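Input/output pair, single chain:
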Amino acid sequence: MLWKLFYNAIAVPAMFVGFYSAGCCNPKIQEGIRGRKRVFTALTNQLQTARPLEKTVWFHFTSVGEFEQAKPLIEAIYAETRIVLTFFSPSVAPNAESYPYADAAVYLPLDTPRNAARLIRLIEPSLIVFSKFDIWPNLVWCASQHSIPIIVVAGTLHAESKRLSRFAKPFFRSVHRHINVHCAISEADAARFQELCSPVHQIVVTGDTRYEQVYRRATSVEPDVEFFPGQRSLKRPILIAGSTYTEDEKVLLPAYQLLRENTPENFPHLILVPHEPTLERIKEIRGYLNREELVHLCFSELTSEVDLSAVDVLVVDSVGLLAKLYGLADIAFVGGSFRGSVHNVMEPAAMAKPVIFGPTIQNAYEASLLVGRGGAKLVHTAQELADTIAVWLDDTDARRIAGDIGKQLIAENLGAVERTLVHLRAYL
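Output:
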Protein backbone atom coordinates (compact mmCIF):
# COMPACT_ATOMS: atom_id res chain seq x y z
CA MET A 1 0.00 0.00 0.00
CA LEU A 2 1.43 3.35 -1.09
CA TRP A 3 0.14 5.27 1.93
CA LYS A 4 1.55 2.70 4.36
CA LEU A 5 4.95 2.99 2.69
CA PHE A 6 4.79 6.81 2.86
CA TYR A 7 3.75 6.79 6.52
CA ASN A 8 6.46 4.38 7.67
CA ALA A 9 9.25 5.78 5.49
CA ILE A 10 8.63 9.49 6.16
CA ALA A 11 6.03 10.27 8.83
CA VAL A 12 7.13 7.78 11.51
CA PRO A 13 10.85 8.73 11.40
CA ALA A 14 9.84 12.41 11.51
CA MET A 15 7.68 11.72 14.59
CA PHE A 16 10.61 9.96 16.28
CA VAL A 17 12.96 12.88 15.62
CA GLY A 18 10.39 15.48 16.66
CA PHE A 19 9.35 13.59 19.79
CA TYR A 20 12.86 13.02 21.10
CA SER A 21 14.07 16.50 20.10
CA ALA A 22 11.19 18.14 21.94
CA GLY A 23 11.94 15.94 24.93
CA CYS A 24 15.29 17.68 25.40
CA CYS A 25 13.59 20.77 26.79
CA ASN A 26 10.11 19.59 27.79
CA PRO A 27 9.86 17.69 31.11
CA LYS A 28 6.42 16.35 30.25
CA ILE A 29 7.67 14.78 27.01
CA GLN A 30 10.72 13.44 28.88
CA GLU A 31 8.34 11.73 31.29
CA GLY A 32 6.53 10.13 28.36
CA ILE A 33 9.81 8.92 26.86
CA ARG A 34 10.83 7.32 30.15
CA GLY A 35 7.44 5.66 30.50
CA ARG A 36 7.67 4.14 27.02
CA LYS A 37 11.04 2.50 27.67
CA ARG A 38 9.47 -0.14 29.91
CA VAL A 39 6.11 -0.57 28.13
CA PHE A 40 6.42 -4.16 26.96
CA THR A 41 7.90 -5.45 30.22
CA ALA A 42 5.19 -3.68 32.22
CA LEU A 43 2.44 -4.91 29.92
CA THR A 44 3.68 -8.51 30.03
CA ASN A 45 3.81 -8.47 33.83
CA GLN A 46 0.35 -6.95 34.15
CA LEU A 47 -1.23 -9.40 31.72
CA GLN A 48 0.23 -12.36 33.64
CA THR A 49 -1.90 -11.38 36.64
CA ALA A 50 -4.95 -10.23 34.64
CA ARG A 51 -8.35 -11.84 35.14
CA PRO A 52 -8.75 -15.04 33.08
CA LEU A 53 -11.68 -13.96 30.93
CA GLU A 54 -12.40 -15.05 27.37
CA LYS A 55 -12.69 -11.57 25.81
CA THR A 56 -10.27 -8.65 25.99
CA VAL A 57 -11.16 -5.08 25.04
CA TRP A 58 -8.32 -2.66 24.42
CA PHE A 59 -9.16 1.00 24.98
CA HIS A 60 -6.82 3.72 23.74
CA PHE A 61 -7.09 7.42 24.60
CA THR A 62 -4.69 10.31 24.38
CA SER A 63 -5.29 12.21 27.62
CA VAL A 64 -7.58 12.92 30.57
CA GLY A 65 -10.65 14.10 28.65
CA GLU A 66 -10.71 11.07 26.36
CA PHE A 67 -10.22 8.77 29.37
CA GLU A 68 -13.30 10.33 30.96
CA GLN A 69 -15.26 9.49 27.80
CA ALA A 70 -14.11 5.87 27.95
CA LYS A 71 -14.69 5.30 31.67
CA PRO A 72 -18.46 4.66 31.68
CA LEU A 73 -18.06 2.18 28.81
CA ILE A 74 -15.18 0.41 30.56
CA GLU A 75 -17.12 0.10 33.79
CA ALA A 76 -20.20 -1.22 31.99
CA ILE A 77 -18.33 -4.15 30.41
CA TYR A 78 -15.64 -4.75 33.06
CA ALA A 79 -17.36 -7.76 34.65
CA GLU A 80 -17.48 -9.69 31.39
CA THR A 81 -14.21 -8.65 29.68
CA ARG A 82 -10.55 -8.05 30.45
CA ILE A 83 -9.70 -4.37 30.05
CA VAL A 84 -6.38 -3.12 28.70
CA LEU A 85 -5.71 0.62 28.56
CA THR A 86 -3.12 2.50 26.53
CA PHE A 87 -2.62 6.25 26.62
CA PHE A 88 -0.39 8.85 25.05
CA SER A 89 -0.03 11.81 27.43
CA PRO A 90 1.83 11.71 30.79
CA SER A 91 -0.96 13.84 32.26
CA VAL A 92 -3.28 10.84 32.34
CA ALA A 93 -0.71 8.22 33.38
CA PRO A 94 -1.31 8.32 37.18
CA ASN A 95 -5.09 8.10 36.74
CA ALA A 96 -4.94 5.27 34.21
CA GLU A 97 -2.35 3.25 36.10
CA SER A 98 -4.35 3.39 39.35
CA TYR A 99 -7.75 2.87 37.72
CA PRO A 100 -9.50 -0.05 39.45
CA TYR A 101 -11.38 -1.18 36.33
CA ALA A 102 -8.27 -2.00 34.26
CA ASP A 103 -6.35 -5.26 34.07
CA ALA A 104 -3.39 -3.49 32.44
CA ALA A 105 -2.51 0.14 31.67
CA VAL A 106 0.59 1.39 29.84
CA TYR A 107 1.80 4.14 27.52
CA LEU A 108 1.19 3.50 23.84
CA PRO A 109 4.63 3.08 22.24
CA LEU A 110 5.36 5.09 19.13
CA ASP A 111 3.40 3.87 16.14
CA THR A 112 5.74 1.56 14.24
CA PRO A 113 4.66 -1.67 12.48
CA ARG A 114 6.83 -3.70 14.88
CA ASN A 115 5.34 -2.07 17.99
CA ALA A 116 1.79 -2.49 16.69
CA ALA A 117 2.31 -6.17 15.90
CA ARG A 118 3.95 -6.81 19.27
CA LEU A 119 1.11 -5.12 21.17
CA ILE A 120 -1.54 -7.13 19.35
CA ARG A 121 0.38 -10.36 19.95
CA LEU A 122 0.62 -9.61 23.69
CA ILE A 123 -2.88 -8.26 24.30
CA GLU A 124 -4.81 -10.51 21.86
CA PRO A 125 -7.74 -8.07 21.80
CA SER A 126 -11.24 -9.09 20.85
CA LEU A 127 -12.00 -5.43 20.14
CA ILE A 128 -10.01 -2.18 19.94
CA VAL A 129 -11.73 1.04 21.03
CA PHE A 130 -10.33 4.48 20.21
CA SER A 131 -11.74 7.32 22.29
CA LYS A 132 -12.55 10.54 20.44
CA PHE A 133 -9.83 10.98 17.77
CA ASP A 134 -6.42 9.56 18.76
CA ILE A 135 -6.27 6.95 15.98
CA TRP A 136 -2.88 5.44 15.03
CA PRO A 137 -2.43 4.13 11.46
CA ASN A 138 -0.07 1.17 12.00
CA LEU A 139 -2.18 -0.05 14.87
CA VAL A 140 -5.30 0.13 12.71
CA TRP A 141 -3.64 -1.58 9.73
CA CYS A 142 -2.19 -4.35 11.89
CA ALA A 143 -5.51 -4.96 13.67
CA SER A 144 -7.25 -5.17 10.30
CA GLN A 145 -4.76 -7.81 9.11
CA HIS A 146 -5.68 -9.89 12.16
CA SER A 147 -9.45 -9.30 11.62
CA ILE A 148 -9.75 -7.46 14.94
CA PRO A 149 -12.77 -5.11 14.95
CA ILE A 150 -12.19 -1.42 15.73
CA ILE A 151 -14.67 1.13 17.07
CA VAL A 152 -14.28 4.88 17.60
CA VAL A 153 -16.39 6.16 20.53
CA ALA A 154 -17.38 9.77 21.28
CA GLY A 155 -15.85 10.50 17.88
CA THR A 156 -15.15 14.08 16.90
CA LEU A 157 -13.77 15.59 13.74
CA HIS A 158 -14.02 19.38 13.73
CA ALA A 159 -14.52 21.35 10.55
CA GLU A 160 -10.96 22.76 10.54
CA SER A 161 -9.32 19.37 11.03
CA LYS A 162 -6.24 18.84 8.84
CA ARG A 163 -7.49 15.30 8.23
CA LEU A 164 -10.06 16.79 5.88
CA SER A 165 -7.57 18.82 3.85
CA ARG A 166 -7.10 18.04 0.19
CA PHE A 167 -3.73 16.34 0.62
CA ALA A 168 -4.37 14.54 3.92
CA LYS A 169 -7.80 13.16 3.15
CA PRO A 170 -6.63 10.27 0.87
CA PHE A 171 -4.19 9.11 3.55
CA PHE A 172 -6.77 9.13 6.33
CA ARG A 173 -9.24 7.31 4.10
CA SER A 174 -6.68 4.48 3.96
CA VAL A 175 -6.88 4.35 7.77
CA HIS A 176 -10.55 4.96 8.51
CA ARG A 177 -11.79 2.41 5.98
CA HIS A 178 -10.51 -0.28 8.37
CA ILE A 179 -12.58 1.03 11.30
CA ASN A 180 -15.81 -0.93 11.71
CA VAL A 181 -17.93 1.65 13.52
CA HIS A 182 -17.59 5.40 14.10
CA CYS A 183 -19.76 6.50 17.03
CA ALA A 184 -19.91 10.27 16.53
CA ILE A 185 -21.02 12.85 19.09
CA SER A 186 -23.10 14.87 16.58
CA GLU A 187 -24.61 14.82 13.10
CA ALA A 188 -21.97 17.29 11.92
CA ASP A 189 -19.13 15.06 13.14
CA ALA A 190 -20.77 12.04 11.54
CA ALA A 191 -20.96 13.87 8.20
CA ARG A 192 -17.26 14.74 8.39
CA PHE A 193 -16.33 11.15 9.25
CA GLN A 194 -18.30 10.11 6.19
CA GLU A 195 -15.84 12.07 4.05
CA LEU A 196 -13.13 9.66 5.22
CA CYS A 197 -15.21 6.51 4.74
CA SER A 198 -17.12 4.73 2.01
CA PRO A 199 -20.94 4.55 2.06
CA VAL A 200 -20.80 0.99 3.42
CA HIS A 201 -19.08 2.04 6.65
CA GLN A 202 -21.18 2.24 9.79
CA ILE A 203 -21.26 5.80 11.10
CA VAL A 204 -23.77 6.43 13.87
CA VAL A 205 -24.58 9.38 16.11
CA THR A 206 -24.50 8.15 19.71
CA GLY A 207 -23.55 11.34 21.57
CA ASP A 208 -20.77 12.12 24.01
CA THR A 209 -20.29 9.53 26.73
CA ARG A 210 -18.63 12.12 28.95
CA TYR A 211 -22.01 13.69 29.77
CA GLU A 212 -22.86 10.70 31.98
CA GLN A 213 -19.50 10.79 33.71
CA VAL A 214 -19.70 14.53 34.40
CA TYR A 215 -23.34 14.35 35.49
CA ARG A 216 -22.63 11.50 37.90
CA ARG A 217 -19.69 13.37 39.45
CA ALA A 218 -21.60 16.66 39.67
CA THR A 219 -24.59 15.10 41.39
CA SER A 220 -22.35 13.28 43.89
CA VAL A 221 -20.76 16.50 45.19
CA GLU A 222 -22.27 17.56 48.51
CA PRO A 223 -22.76 21.34 48.27
CA ASP A 224 -22.68 21.98 52.01
CA VAL A 225 -19.40 20.18 52.69
CA GLU A 226 -16.61 22.39 54.02
CA PHE A 227 -13.88 22.02 51.43
CA PHE A 228 -11.26 24.06 53.27
CA PRO A 229 -10.94 25.71 56.68
CA GLY A 230 -12.77 28.99 57.07
CA GLN A 231 -15.08 28.40 54.10
CA ARG A 232 -18.01 30.07 55.79
CA SER A 233 -16.06 33.31 56.20
CA LEU A 234 -16.33 33.93 52.45
CA LYS A 235 -18.65 36.92 52.16
CA ARG A 236 -18.05 38.09 48.59
CA PRO A 237 -19.06 36.31 45.37
CA ILE A 238 -16.74 33.52 44.23
CA LEU A 239 -15.12 33.26 40.81
CA ILE A 240 -13.54 29.85 40.17
CA ALA A 241 -10.90 29.71 37.43
CA GLY A 242 -10.39 26.06 36.61
CA SER A 243 -7.53 24.28 34.85
CA THR A 244 -5.68 27.41 33.74
CA TYR A 245 -2.41 27.90 31.88
CA THR A 246 -0.13 30.96 31.82
CA GLU A 247 -1.85 32.12 28.62
CA ASP A 248 -5.25 32.06 30.36
CA GLU A 249 -3.92 33.91 33.39
CA LYS A 250 -2.52 36.69 31.16
CA VAL A 251 -6.16 37.50 30.38
CA LEU A 252 -7.83 36.41 33.62
CA LEU A 253 -5.65 38.28 36.13
CA PRO A 254 -5.76 41.67 34.32
CA ALA A 255 -9.54 41.20 34.11
CA TYR A 256 -9.61 40.60 37.84
CA GLN A 257 -7.66 43.82 38.35
CA LEU A 258 -10.22 45.68 36.24
CA LEU A 259 -12.97 44.32 38.46
CA ARG A 260 -11.14 45.57 41.55
CA GLU A 261 -10.80 49.04 40.03
CA ASN A 262 -14.26 49.37 38.49
CA THR A 263 -16.58 47.35 40.76
CA PRO A 264 -15.05 47.44 44.26
CA GLU A 265 -18.48 47.02 45.86
CA ASN A 266 -18.93 43.60 44.17
CA PHE A 267 -15.31 42.46 43.91
CA PRO A 268 -15.26 38.63 43.96
CA HIS A 269 -12.94 36.20 45.60
CA LEU A 270 -10.89 34.37 42.96
CA ILE A 271 -10.08 30.69 43.46
CA LEU A 272 -7.41 29.92 40.89
CA VAL A 273 -6.81 26.27 39.99
CA PRO A 274 -3.81 25.85 37.64
CA HIS A 275 -3.94 22.91 35.23
CA GLU A 276 -0.62 21.62 36.56
CA PRO A 277 0.19 23.10 40.00
CA THR A 278 3.95 22.57 39.81
CA LEU A 279 6.28 24.56 42.04
CA GLU A 280 7.34 26.65 39.02
CA ARG A 281 3.73 27.49 38.09
CA ILE A 282 2.77 28.41 41.66
CA LYS A 283 5.85 30.62 41.94
CA GLU A 284 4.93 32.32 38.64
CA ILE A 285 1.36 33.01 39.77
CA ARG A 286 2.40 34.29 43.19
CA GLY A 287 4.96 36.59 41.59
CA TYR A 288 2.22 38.28 39.57
CA LEU A 289 -0.12 38.53 42.56
CA ASN A 290 2.62 40.08 44.70
CA ARG A 291 3.44 42.67 42.03
CA GLU A 292 -0.23 43.62 41.78
CA GLU A 293 -0.62 43.72 45.56
CA LEU A 294 -3.43 41.19 45.60
CA VAL A 295 -3.88 39.46 48.96
CA HIS A 296 -3.47 35.75 48.34
CA LEU A 297 -2.76 32.39 49.91
CA CYS A 298 -2.11 28.89 48.66
CA PHE A 299 -4.53 26.12 49.55
CA SER A 300 -1.75 24.29 51.41
CA GLU A 301 -1.29 27.32 53.70
CA LEU A 302 -4.86 27.44 54.94
CA THR A 303 -5.63 26.81 58.58
CA SER A 304 -8.80 27.21 60.61
CA GLU A 305 -7.41 30.53 61.94
CA VAL A 306 -7.23 32.13 58.48
CA ASP A 307 -9.93 34.70 57.72
CA LEU A 308 -10.69 34.01 54.07
CA SER A 309 -12.83 37.13 53.80
CA ALA A 310 -9.59 39.13 53.72
CA VAL A 311 -8.06 37.00 50.94
CA ASP A 312 -8.56 38.10 47.33
CA VAL A 313 -7.03 35.09 45.56
CA LEU A 314 -6.76 31.52 46.74
CA VAL A 315 -4.25 29.56 44.64
CA VAL A 316 -5.01 25.84 44.69
CA ASP A 317 -1.67 24.02 44.77
CA SER A 318 -3.22 20.55 45.12
CA VAL A 319 -4.86 18.27 42.56
CA GLY A 320 -8.25 16.58 42.56
CA LEU A 321 -10.28 19.43 44.06
CA LEU A 322 -11.66 21.25 41.04
CA ALA A 323 -14.95 19.37 40.69
CA LYS A 324 -15.79 20.05 44.34
CA LEU A 325 -14.67 23.66 44.18
CA TYR A 326 -16.96 24.36 41.23
CA GLY A 327 -19.80 23.74 43.66
CA LEU A 328 -18.80 26.93 45.52
CA ALA A 329 -18.72 29.12 42.42
CA ASP A 330 -21.01 31.96 41.52
CA ILE A 331 -19.25 32.07 38.12
CA ALA A 332 -16.81 29.61 36.54
CA PHE A 333 -13.99 30.47 34.14
CA VAL A 334 -12.62 27.42 32.31
CA GLY A 335 -9.00 27.49 31.17
CA GLY A 336 -7.20 26.17 28.13
CA SER A 337 -9.13 28.32 25.68
CA PHE A 338 -6.40 30.98 25.42
CA ARG A 339 -3.71 28.34 24.91
CA GLY A 340 -5.05 25.95 22.29
CA SER A 341 -8.08 23.98 23.46
CA VAL A 342 -10.64 24.59 26.16
CA HIS A 343 -10.82 22.19 29.10
CA ASN A 344 -13.89 20.59 30.65
CA VAL A 345 -16.80 23.03 30.41
CA MET A 346 -19.33 20.31 31.24
CA GLU A 347 -18.37 20.07 34.89
CA PRO A 348 -19.43 23.58 36.00
CA ALA A 349 -22.41 23.47 33.62
CA ALA A 350 -23.64 20.26 35.26
CA MET A 351 -23.57 22.10 38.59
CA ALA A 352 -25.72 24.91 37.14
CA LYS A 353 -22.88 27.44 37.11
CA PRO A 354 -22.65 30.15 34.42
CA VAL A 355 -19.48 29.51 32.43
CA ILE A 356 -16.94 31.77 30.69
CA PHE A 357 -14.07 30.76 28.41
CA GLY A 358 -11.85 32.12 25.67
CA PRO A 359 -11.99 31.79 21.88
CA THR A 360 -10.44 28.38 21.21
CA ILE A 361 -13.25 25.88 21.62
CA GLN A 362 -13.20 23.82 18.41
CA ASN A 363 -12.17 20.78 20.47
CA ALA A 364 -15.35 20.94 22.59
CA TYR A 365 -18.68 20.74 20.76
CA GLU A 366 -20.52 21.22 24.05
CA ALA A 367 -18.84 24.63 24.53
CA SER A 368 -20.39 25.96 21.33
CA LEU A 369 -23.77 24.54 22.39
CA LEU A 370 -23.52 26.34 25.73
CA VAL A 371 -22.69 29.64 24.03
CA GLY A 372 -25.50 29.21 21.51
CA ARG A 373 -28.09 28.65 24.22
CA GLY A 374 -26.85 31.32 26.62
CA GLY A 375 -25.38 29.07 29.29
CA ALA A 376 -21.87 30.36 28.64
CA LYS A 377 -20.04 33.41 27.32
CA LEU A 378 -17.05 33.43 24.99
CA VAL A 379 -14.57 36.29 25.45
CA HIS A 380 -11.46 37.44 23.62
CA THR A 381 -9.87 40.07 25.87
CA ALA A 382 -9.39 40.96 29.53
CA GLN A 383 -11.87 43.82 29.16
CA GLU A 384 -14.54 41.50 27.71
CA LEU A 385 -13.94 39.03 30.52
CA ALA A 386 -14.19 41.72 33.21
CA ASP A 387 -17.37 43.13 31.65
CA THR A 388 -18.99 39.68 31.43
CA ILE A 389 -18.17 38.86 35.05
CA ALA A 390 -19.44 42.26 36.20
CA VAL A 391 -22.77 41.86 34.38
CA TRP A 392 -23.38 38.42 35.88
CA LEU A 393 -22.33 39.52 39.37
CA ASP A 394 -24.85 42.36 39.22
CA ASP A 395 -27.72 40.14 38.05
CA THR A 396 -28.53 37.10 40.18
CA ASP A 397 -31.42 36.10 37.92
CA ALA A 398 -29.22 36.16 34.81
CA ARG A 399 -26.67 33.93 36.56
CA ARG A 400 -29.37 31.51 37.63
CA ILE A 401 -30.88 31.35 34.14
CA ALA A 402 -27.48 30.75 32.51
CA GLY A 403 -26.69 28.04 35.05
CA ASP A 404 -30.04 26.33 34.53
CA ILE A 405 -29.46 26.34 30.76
CA GLY A 406 -26.14 24.57 31.22
CA LYS A 407 -27.57 21.96 33.56
CA GLN A 408 -30.47 21.32 31.19
CA LEU A 409 -28.05 20.87 28.28
CA ILE A 410 -26.18 18.18 30.22
CA ALA A 411 -29.43 16.42 31.14
CA GLU A 412 -30.64 16.43 27.53
CA ASN A 413 -27.48 14.67 26.35
CA LEU A 414 -27.54 11.75 28.76
CA GLY A 415 -27.95 8.31 27.22
CA ALA A 416 -24.83 8.23 25.04
CA VAL A 417 -23.34 5.39 27.08
CA GLU A 418 -26.21 2.99 26.41
CA ARG A 419 -26.37 3.95 22.74
CA THR A 420 -22.62 3.32 22.38
CA LEU A 421 -22.68 0.06 24.34
CA VAL A 422 -25.07 -1.40 21.78
CA HIS A 423 -22.28 -1.22 19.19
CA LEU A 424 -19.53 -2.44 21.53
CA ARG A 425 -21.54 -5.46 22.66
CA ALA A 426 -22.28 -6.40 19.05
CA TYR A 427 -18.60 -7.39 18.80
CA LEU A 428 -18.42 -9.10 22.21
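The mean pLDDT is 91. The longest helix spans residues 2-22.
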